[in-house]
Structures are given as C-alpha cells and as structure tokens.
Design a protein that fits this description.
Strand order of the largest sheet: 5-2-1-9-20
CATH superfamily of the largest domain: FAD/NAD(P)-binding domain
Number of helices: 8
CATH class of the largest domain: Alpha Beta
Radius of gyration: 21 Å
Largest sheet: 5 strands, parallel
Number of strands: 24
CATH topology of the largest domain: FAD/NAD(P)-binding domain
Number of domains: 2
Structural class: alpha/beta
Amino acid sequence: MTQNITIIGSGFGALSTVRELRKRDAHISITLISPLAELHYLPGIIWIPSGLRTRQQLVIPLENFFRRMNVRHVAAEVTGLSEKGRIVRTSLGSVYNDALVIASGGRFIKKLPGIEHAITPCEGIAAAEKIRDRVKTMSGGTIAVGFAGNPNEPTAVRGGPMFEFLFGIDEQLKREGRRDRFEIVFFNPSTEPGNRLGAKAVAHLLEQMAQRGIKTHLGHKLQRFEVDKVVTEGGEFKADLILFMPGMTGNLWFDHTTLARSPGGLLKADAQCRVEGENNVYVVGDSGSFPGPDWMPKQAHMADLQAEAAAQNLLAGLRGETPRATFKVELICIIDALDQGTLVFRNAKRQIVLPPNRLFHWAKRWFESVYLKKYR
C-alpha cells in the first residue's frame, strides 16, 4: 500500500523536504498544503527598495516543480490537526497522512503598542515595496531601523535582514545624492545587537554603522512606537519612517492542535526534528524550537539542514526503523550593502567574519540564481 506524506508550507524548509524525500524515494506519495503554489524568495527583498529586484523576480511559480517531483498541491489554509496528526484540517477539508512535516514558518509578535506605525520587512514582498515607495517620496528626515526578539525563545529572531536594509538604504541614498538630508538610526534593546552572529560580527557591524554615520540607540527596552517617534525606556527619538522586525512565535493554527510547544510558542522538537511526543510528525525551519546552542539561526540554510534530517528520519520511521539522523548547526550569511557584502560564518568550533568586499555581493546574487534554478 502506498504511504502518504503531507508537508505543510511552501517555503525553504518545505521545498527542501520535498527534494530530500524524492532523492530517497521516487514512489512515495507526497501532498503539499499551502495557500499558493509559489515560492517567495524573501532573502531578495533587501534589494527591492533600490530597484535591484522586483516582485516578478522573487515570486517563483511552483507548478512545474510540483509536476517534476510528482507532488499533489492542495491550495488551502491549514486550520488544525486531529487524530494525533494523521489528519490535517484545512479550509478545503481534511487531508490524511501517514507522516507529516510542518514547515509553515513563524509568526511575528505584534504586541508592541503602536507597531502599526512600523513596517515589518520580512512579512514579505509587499512590505519591501512599501519601504521602496516611502523612501522614494521622502525629501529628508529620520529613518529608524531595528529589531527585537521573543524573550521566551532566544533563537526566534531574524536580525540579519535588518542590517541589510540598514546598510542598503544608506548606500541607496548616497547613490541618489540624498544621504545628507537624512538621519539614519539603528535601535535595539540589546547592547550587542546580532550577538547570534558572534562577538566579532557584532563589533564589525557597529564599526560599519559608525563609519557610515548611522546613529545607534542601544540597550533600552522598547515601550511603543508613535506615528513619528520611537519611545524606549532610555529615551525617545524622532522617526519619519520606522522599519522594525519583532521576534517570532508559532502559527495561530498551532493553538488548534495538541502538539508540544516551547515557552516561546514554537513546536518543540528533538534532535531528529520530531515533534516531541508525536509519532511520524516532524517540524522544519522557523516553525520549530530545536535543541542546540542559543545562537542557532532562523535562516534558509538551517531549514535546509533540518529538512535533510527530517526526510531521512521520516522514511526510516515508515520502514519501521529507528530515526537517528541529526542536523549540524551552522550559521552562514552574507550581510549585503548593495555594492559589497560581509561574510559571516559560525559553527561550534569557530567564528569567521570577512570584511566588506564586492565579490561577496556578487556571490550572494550568484547563490540566488543557483538556488532558484531548482524551482524555476
């Protein structure tokens, strides 16, 4: 009898899981549930404000990929689970599975008073387009860029893209001959913003801000945003445009399940990517809280590594074997600034920061083309 695997999501973790499963089993039945048959390549949104990328370049239709991978796509919203995860409830009805992989991403915590006055860039392409349009119409003023975390989930933060928006907007305004009309302020409740990147990276980033004339407001808990102001426990400052990335938590539909949750609201996983206490239910990427160091990143590369382990373990479990595969923890990113990039690498043994270089900017663009070729 053919066994059925269901994957929830169509982001990096979900699609990597599809590829890893197909690499190991050409015949098993795969169903993927997501609202649209599209991949939105969010790492590229940092280039939307400058015009280096457009929506059309970053939205990848997945129909051909699903056809090649022999995947059935259900275009629906997930609303919950039943029968210990064997049934996924959706807006279009129920979907049965023998094994389940949850890769539906995270949800930004929007509890800060006045957060409606800020743009959250990683919410998607529309947010980056809004930034582009706002910057284009501004004749001057103060642009505030910052991020915060989930106090109950140290790893549930995505600060890297905010450094890229920060440096990218600075460089964009210089190219346009308008930088002298703007003040750019970076704010963060920590005195060591981006410390998951490592101490070397933090020192480098702060040095870059100083060299670029970017002011900082660090080490003060955020209180609220106003239409033209950022207010913290350590004071307030004017802001005509606020870009802010809050910490992440789990999807709302997790509340309609009995799945184990971490203190920060994510799905609690073991080292094999299994949701604790469940049979044949796995989690990959931003949806999960995994054992490991507190600097474990929330990024596509980490989701890919988890997807490989989850696929191996899922198939082993269906064969009646003991799942044993684990994933390595490493952080690798290029912090881009339109004309150059800084390479940051971290694992259990070392931290590497290579200073700004034009080659890293082009390497990031090359990686994008190679990565997306798998799905185009």
